[in-house]
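Need tokens for this chain, all 321 residues.
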Amino acid sequence: MNVKPLAMRDVFLERIWCSMASEQKIFFVSADFGSPVLDKIRADFPDRFVNVGIAEQNLINVSAGLALEGYTVFAYAIAPFITMRCYEQIRVSLALLSEVRPMNVNLIGVGAGYSYVVSGPTHQCYEDITLMRALPNFQVLSPADHVTAASMFDICRDVQGPKYLRLDAQVLPVIYEHNPPEMSNGLHVHKRGGQVCLIATGYMLHTALRVAESLALSGKTVGVIDLFDLARFSPDKLYQALDGYEGIVTLEEGFRGRGGVDSMMFEFVSRQKMKAKMLNIGVEGGYRFELGTRADLHEQVGIGYEVALKNINIFIESLSN
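Here are the structure tokens for all 321 residues:
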């Protein structure tokens, strides 16, 4: 079965639009950011749609107020703006307040990593994993295809608490053609075996699977895990998935060594008293202003397919020495 690739944003907004007809407590707040599906939401449910304009701090405070009135709120903006431009409001009005009041606010950030490839570092987002994971009470969701993104709507609607959903702005190949992953685990094991397991999130799962295929052609088997819930994954499931591997490789479209997936996995391995060695593949520190394809930029900053394959090969060989 071939599933046509779709934009994560469109399938997620479509699920919101379909649900708003029967669920009167869903409210949508936008920061001057549009799409064809968003036009349908605005036209069909004008009493539960607000465009606050280019005012992300206000976006968060309005969303918090609506949530305190019992609404399930979806707040929508470009990823770096909905995280960094209004971080204090997120911390105080969502992370802190959710400690003492029930609330359900879902931040939809479009443009994770390099997906706004031609817009440069102002619109690209390499810091969001680190920032949003640092906030207690926040669930951080990072899908690798539109099938996973669509399934995450159920978590956003049904689970109380603030959440951050980081969506890719590009149309990515479909990974889960037959069934979406089990959301409650926060992860999905794609491949098993070998000495090394690759743990990737978001766009980098595509790179990890491609690297695994290339390694298999040279007789090297590796495991591959999609970690799509970066805050509330099942520790038991992840431990079971990693048990027995001599090496773990993390792959993320964010800064390396600055509190992202690599930091999370260092802490996890240490806490679980695992003996596996680790290799972290992430963006080398520093902002770059070159334009090019996403693949080109990834190679330049150390997370592309070619550089990842080379470094993982070296890592595998080092485990045998």
